[in-house]
From TrEMBL, chain A:
Domain of life (superkingdom): Bacteria
Keywords: 2Fe-2S, Iron, Iron-sulfur, Metal-binding, Oxidoreductase
Record's protein name: 2Fe-2S iron-sulfur cluster binding domain-containing protein
Organism expressing this protein natively: Rhizobium deserti
Keyword Iron in annotation: yes
From TrEMBL, chain B:
Protein name, as recorded: Xanthine dehydrogenase family protein subunit M
Keywords on record: FAD, Flavoprotein
Native species: Rhizobium deserti
Gene Ontology MF annotations: FAD binding; oxidoreductase activity
SMART domains (UniProt xref): CO_deh_flav_C (SM01092)
PANTHER family (UniProt xref): OXIDOREDUCTASE, XANTHINE DEHYDROGENASE SUBUNIT C-RELATED
From TrEMBL, chain C:
Single GO term (MF): oxidoreductase activity
Stretches for region Disordered: 138-172
Protein's UniProt name: Xanthine dehydrogenase family protein molybdopterin-binding subunit
SUPFAM superfamilies: CO dehydrogenase molybdoprotein N-domain-like (SSF54665), Molybdenum cofactor-binding domain (SSF56003)
Domain of life: Bacteria
Pfam families noted in UniProt: Ald_Xan_dh_C (PF01315), MoCoBD_1 (PF02738), MoCoBD_2 (PF20256)
Lineage: Bacteria, Pseudomonadati, Pseudomonadota, Alphaproteobacteria, Hyphomicrobiales
Database matches in InterPro entries: Ald_Oxase/Xan_DH_a/b (IPR000674), Ald_Oxase/Xan_DH_a/b_sf (IPR036856), Ald_Oxase/xanthine_DH-like (IPR016208), AldOxase/xan_DH_MoCoBD1 (IPR008274), AldOxase/xan_DH_MoCoBD2 (IPR046867), AldOxase/xan_DH_Mopterin-bd_sf (IPR037165)
All copies of domain Aldehyde oxidase/xanthine dehydrogenase a/b hammerhead, residue ranges: 22-136
Listed Gene3D superfamilies: Aldehyde oxidase/xanthine dehydrogenase, a/b hammerhead (3.90.1170.50), Aldehyde oxidase/xanthine dehydrogenase, molybdopterin binding domain (3.30.365.10)
Length: 174, 339, 755
């Protein structure tokens, strides 16, 4: 897909990205951030722009399983990467456990920082460095929530971490 | 942002050549600082050389018990590496005190040591700034200077270096490995960053065309007596007002054998005074000594008005950090009570 | 009054939640039209003066750029102030983007670049060259305060200070206990996480579909129709999802103007999304300076209250908020003087920010009350209880309900307040000094005129619709609950349509009035649907409801039945079949009842209890525990209600400890216009917060007994934190935010004095 047709006088680069399991072969201007690629040409607007400078975490996505700020990534620099956005984690009909926990715990209000919070929380659980509430709070501090849902976000993450721990204990026992 | 050409370097010499051949070129690694600055039009490179494919991600054991950390190892990879946690817990702690988990996943070791100041005036291209635009003046002097330097500043620039990781690396006497058109060389960490003097545009002592390839750490005896203590305006995800990396070796009778203190948030570079540290060898590791250390380190400190508080804050922080280090109870970055 | 039922009063999850947690909810800048263009704004870098020259030639040649707008080529728009005034405009001359060469504040928009991509628009903006003739900026409130004045045109009647009563000066002079102090608060910035943005889809016949970040789609709609002289029928404005606003979206912002202007000019779809930096140039909670004098008798009874408040406004509008009137009504006092002034600065017009006025004024009042408690030697809760009054002395009216005693009692009990030692610096935990502080919160319980439509279908499904907004408040869910309650349905059987200008008329979402107003309108419309059902049922042969009145029937289990005997009734589907209809739809309307308003004032109240720990040497404060007890009438949904209060408390923590625009008055600029250096609370700053609701039965505040929760959570929080810091450290900091350097400075002063 050539997304640069209207400003075609400018140089582009070939980039191949896997986004939510779907392969995209793109011709991109090098100055396009992953965030703007997602929210603009690809119309994957679940990933949010809150500051565009790595100050808020609303744009958090998983790149090769790791949570990063998509606003500070030039899309061309991610050639060959696997990207998971909030849309790829689950749908309203088939939610990811973290999405269900956020819903249940009212871990959001306006919902704008929420996709970034959820991607970040999924990344956090995968990293395995948070073992208590203080560590959850510290390691989720890259996601600002102006509605102040932090207490509920910590509850939601604790629940999912507890469920994961219970699951792995059970598997270990078996 | 200025539009730029983009290329990917496959080898270090490719990258060095690209940098050397084009004065408008800059290297892109994690992008967490460079892309930010480009979006604010603070930095306007004409060419970006993407070095993410270079084989510089490894953290390797060195024969002397040290480690070589590749320039592209992410901040997270460094902080959570079991060897770093075991041998250089100060480094791990300092890295975890900085930025956010997302930024640490993307930011690299080389990028971290090359990050630019957070001075408000540097970040605002419509104001004068000798660092951004040599000769234009310094907006921060006489302006909003709450976050600025109290040590080593000049009448050209009062900005501070924003890194936490670098404060630990300064304390640990790391070595920066660089490679340029004339080959490879080592730069001792404390000589890597520079004070602003008359050339605040220059953050470090690398020559044009050189790039950082690794950080080297020698074996050390600080794994049980260390701390990284950071004071900032909110409890996480904020730059330091003052930070202290402290490490010491203490004899069985409680005397200081080897002392390291580096300060963040107070100067244009991580602040260390090796001569001062040496004076305290043999002194008892107690509060009175620590007070003298603090006063000695801050002897030349000078405030700018709004940031005068950093002097007593730094003094008290140094004392507390040394107490933490001496007692073997380092600050846990998730625990917000100051230990 | 609405009673708790199968759906009302239950902690149900938000019905809009699945879309939000999966990224499917579409916010203003997330809509697309064919061939859509993107706009990017250039803002001024002087605070006052004029644009001598603006050179856009290079930007116009930039690849992808379609057009650059400046004051030299802006398409025509309305000429009169009246046409620019939106639903909640303040007295003065509304700002008109690109009207002329004048610059009134730093960050004023001075050009719009429209291009075929976001990047082209952004990057071309950076090469526009501007030459200014700059004037000397006046942005320092402390330096300009001698120029303050009483606003000649009050924003509305409620906001003018009440007339003085008694003899406040004389009573002050004679009282045995007096305190008098000055409190200053730095400017705060709303910073909702969503950037202001507008997407305009240009239709084939020139009709406009507008997605605007706004707290009122009808306000956006009506304002652009007036400014551009558009046929209201050919414009639809949407705000189905709003990524936070906190007051910043009450008045339309300039990106709406720009997107519509460019769309009309080029007959193309256009999107304009702001940068975070621009979010600091829109509107703000103004910097303020307040003087408070309180006097009490030996038992702590207030003898005199004198409160003078002053805050900043812009050069072009007289922004006003109710800062000080609270001091005349929260406690009993017969000698009261309240004065209020504003001061013009070279800044953008301030605006309402969560609990506008109260968050500022009650911070000063409640810190002063704590000072008085120490002056008298009384426990701070006891002092407040001794001055309790169940009457609004400002307006000499009764109060609809005021369960503030219960807030103190329950809050104090949960917090463990009785363990508190009065003496400052008497509690510690390791290196930390521990402090416990409290404050009272108060906010108006308002009802605004609102309409709603309810449709009941023969299959039992209900659709509720209104032009209301949900800025994170839970409007979707509570309107659904009220609809479900009326027809005895589970919540999922009700769909809620809000956030569109074509829906029944609703005011902007502000002042905490949406739940009370739109909620009541839904209940009224639902009752009207039931009345229509009854009329149809009574036309049926041998109708068992033939003699029933509207008041005697309700819906239960899909049937219209007698309230007193559910055996007697008719199935809704049978009624509709008999009437030959497939649905019944009615529009309901509520407005304030003048007979109640004449006699009563309505407020929400809270008791806030805060624990801080301040490192004794390093002076770094942190809030470790908050208990807040809130009396706000009927709670429709304890889950979303709790979230509203949590949010208010967290913003209050930011106000207390972190949030301030750091200004360089030499150039009239905020130097930290970003959310790395303007610190809003992060996860690590928020330990656990406990919320207690004290339910009040109040049939006068609103027809459904709801009082609203959007603001009350923040009021008093900053004072409770400052009081706790005093209790911990003995340092009384009267300048907000209380950053560690202020505590440290006081500590150094103290140790010098001791030496």
């Amino acid at each position: 897909m050539d997304l640069s047709s209207q400003t075609s006088s400018l140089p582009t680069c070939s980039v191949s990205l896997s986004i939510n399991g779907q392969k995209h072969d793109l011709e991109l201007h090098p100055w396009v951030s992953l965030l703007d690629l997602l929210r603009g040409p690809l119309e994957l607007t679940g990933t949010k722009k809150g500051c565009d400078h790595g100050q808020c975490g609303a744009c958090t996505v998983l790149v090769d399983g790791q949570r990063v700020n998509s606003c500070l990534k030039l899309a061309v620099s991610l050639d060959g990467s696997e990207i998971t956005t909030i849309e790829g984690l689950g749908s309203p009909e088939n939610m990811h456990p973290m999405q269900k926990a956020f819903l249940e715990h009212d871990a959001y209000q306006c919902g704008y920082c929420t996709p970034g919070q959820i991607c970040s929380a999924v990344g956090l659980v995968g990293e395995g460095h948070a073992h208590n509430r203080a560590e959850i709070r510290e390691l989720m501090s890259g996601n600002l929530c102006r509605c102040g849902a932090y207490t509920n976000i910590a509850d939601a993450i604790e629940e999912v971490m507890g469920a994961e721990a219970a699951k792995s204990n059970k598997e270990a026992a078996e | 942002m200025r539009q730029f050409s983009y290329s990917r370097a496959e080898t270090v010499s490719d990258a060095v050549a690209a940098l050397a051949s084009n004065p408008e070129a800059q290297l892109l690694a994690g992008g967490t600082n460079l892309v930010d600055l480009m979006k604010y039009n603070v930095t306007r490179p004409g060419a970006i050389v993407d070095i993410n494919r270079l084989p510089l991600k490894e953290i390797e054991d060195l024969p002397n018990g040290g480690l070589r950390i590749g320039a592209l190892a992410s901040n997270s990879a460094v902080a959570y590496d079991p060897r770093v946690q075991e041998r250089y817990p100060l480094l791990s702690s300092a890295v975890l005190a900085g930025a956010s988990a997302q930024l640490r996943n993307a930011a690299t070791t080389g990028g971290n040591i090359l990050q630019r100041t957070r001075c408000y005036y540097f970040y605002d291209p419509s104001t004068p700034c000798n660092k951004r635009e040599p000769g234009s003046g310094c907006g921060a002097i006489g302006g909003v200077n709450r976050i600025q330097a109290i040590l080593g500043a000049s009448d050209k620039c009062i900005a501070v270096h924003p890194s936490d990781m670098c404060v630990a690396l300064a304390a640990l006497d790391a070595v920066v490995e660089v490679e340029g058109p004339d080959g490879k060389r080592d730069i001792p960490f404390t000589e890597f960053h520079r004070l602003p003097g008359d050339r605040p545009e220059s953050d470090n002592t690398m020559a044009r065309g050189e790039m950082v390839t690794a950080i080297r750490l020698e074996g050390n005896h600080f794994a049980s007596h260390y701390t990284y203590l950071k004071l900032r305006d909110r409890l996480s995800y904020a730059f330091a007002l003052v930070s202290v990396a402290a490490a010491m070796e203490v004899s069985s009778d409680g005397a200081i054998v080897d002392l390291r203190v580096a300060l963040g948030g107070v100067a244009h570079k991580p602040w260390r005074d090796k001569l001062a540290e040496a004076e305290f060898a043999g002194q008892p590791a107690n509060e009175e000594t620590f007070r003298q250390v603090a006063r000695r380190l801050l002897a030349g400190a000078k405030g700018q008005g709004e940031n005068d508080f950093k002097i007593p804050l730094a003094e008290r922080s140094i004392i507390r950090a040394l107490k933490q280090a001496a007692s073997g109870r380092p600050q846990d970055q998730s625990v917000k009570a100051i230990q | 009054m609405l009673n708790s039922s199968k759906v009302v009063g239950l902690p149900l999850s938000r019905i809009d939640g699945p879309l939000k947690v999966t990224g499917r909810a579409k916010y203003a800048a997330e809509h697309f039209g064919p061939g859509m263009l993107q706009g990017y704004v250039l803002f001024s870098t002087i605070a006052t003066g004029r644009i001598a020259e603006i050179d856009t030639s290079e930007a116009e040649r930039f690849p992808g750029v379609v057009k650059v707008y400046t004051h030299e080529n802006r398409p025509p728009a309305a000429k009169k102030d009246e046409q620019w005034k939106d639903e909640v405009a303040v007295p003065g001359h509304p700002f008109r983007p690109l009207e002329n060469d004048r610059v009134l504040y730093d960050g004023q928009p001075i050009a719009l670049v429209v291009a075929d991509s976001f990047e082209a628009a952004r990057d071309a903006t950076s090469i526009i060259r501007v030459r200014y003739e700059a004037g000397e900026p006046h942005t320092d409130l402390k330096r300009e305060q001698d120029n303050s004045y009483v606003p000649p045109v009050p924003r509305d009647k409620q906001m003018a200070p009440p007339p003085p009563r008694g003899n406040p000066e004389g009573a002050f002079a004679q009282a045995p206990h007096q305190i008098s102090a000055t409190y200053s608060l730095e400017g705060e910035y709303h910073n909702p996480m969503e950037l202001f943005g507008t997407t305009v889809i240009f239709g084939q016949d020139g009709e406009l579909t507008i997605y605007d970040k706004s707290q009122g789609s009808q306000n956006s709609h009506d304002t652009v129709c007036k400014i551009f002289g558009l046929d209201p029928e050919k414009v639809v404005a949407h705000n189905e999802f709003v990524g936070g606003a906190f007051g910043s979206g009450l008045r339309p912002k300039y990106q709406l103007f720009f997107a519509v202007m460019a769309s009309l000019d080029m007959k193309r779809s256009v999107k304009v999304e702001m940068s975070r930096r621009e979010m600091f140039y829109l509107t703000w909670r103004p910097t303020s300076i307040q003087n408070l004098s309180l006097a009490a008798d030996a038992e702590g009874r207030l003898q005199s209250v004198m409160h003078h408040a002053m805050h900043a406004t812009s050069q072009y509008e007289d922004y006003q908020e109710n800062v000080a009137n609270w001091s005349g009504l929260l406690y009993k006092c017969d000698n009261v003087k309240i004065t209020y002034e504003i001061t013009k600065l070279d800044v953008s017009t301030p605006g309402d920010m969560r609990a506008p006025g109260a968050a500022t004024g009650v911070t000063a009042l409640e810190t002063a009350m704590d000072e008085l408690a120490y002056e008298v030697g009384l426990d701070p809760v006891e002092l407040r209880i001794r001055n309790f009054i169940h009457r609004d002395q400002n307006q000499d009216k009764e109060i609809t309900s005021k369960a503030l005693h219960a807030c103190y009692r329950e809050g104090a009990a949960r917090f463990g307040w009785s363990e508190r030692v009065m003496q400052p610096r008497s509690m510690r935990d390791g290196n930390d000094l521990v402090g416990w502080g409290m404050a009272t919160g108060v906010w108006e319980a308002q009802l605004s005129p609102a309409e709603a439509r309810v449709r009941l279908s023969s299959d039992g499904k209900v659709v509720v619709s209104a032009a209301a907004s949900d800025i994170g408040t839970g409007t979707y869910t509570i309107l659904g609950q009220i609809g479900a309650d009326a027809f005895d349905l589970p919540l999922h059987a009700v769909s809620v349509k809000i956030g569109q200008s074509t829906l029944p008329k609703t005011a902007v979402q502000g002042g905490s009035w949406t739940a009370a107003s739109s909620g009541s309108a839904v209940q009224v419309a639902s009752r009207m649907v039931i009345a229509t059902l009854l009329r149809h049922a009574q036309k049926m042969e041998n109708s068992p409801l033939a003699k029933a009145t509207e008041e005697q029937v309700e819906v239960a289990d899909g049937r219209l039945v007698l309230e007193a005997n559910h055996q007697v009734g008719v199935a809704i589907s049978d009624i509709m079949d008999a009437a030959g209809v497939t649905f019944i739809e009615e529009n309901g309307k509520v407005e304030p009842d003048p007979s109640i308003q004449k006699k009563f004032s309505a407020y929400t109240h809270s008791g806030v209890f805060v624990e801080v720990k301040v490192d004794e040497e390093l002076c770094r404060p942190r809030v470790t525990r908050v208990v807040i007890a809130v009396a706000a009438g009927k709670i429709l949904n304890p889950k979303t209600a709790r979230s509203q209060i949590l949010g208010g408390v967290v913003m209050g923590l930011g106000m207390a400890l972190y949030e301030e625009g750091l200004a360089d008055h030499r150039i009239g600029r905020i130097m930290n216009p970003n959310i790395a250096e303007y610190h809003v609370p992060a996860h690590a700053d928020v330990e656990d917060i406990e919320v207690i609701f004290i339910e009040e039965d109040d049939d006068k505040a609103s027809p459904i007994g709801v009082k609203g929760l959007g603001e009350i959570g923040i009021v008093g929080v900053a004072a409770a934190v400052s009081n706790a810091i005093f209790h911990a450290t003995g340092s009384r900091i009267r300048s907000f935010p209380i950053t560690l350097d202020k505590i440290l400075a006081d500590n150094l002063l103290e140790s010098e004095t001791v030496q």
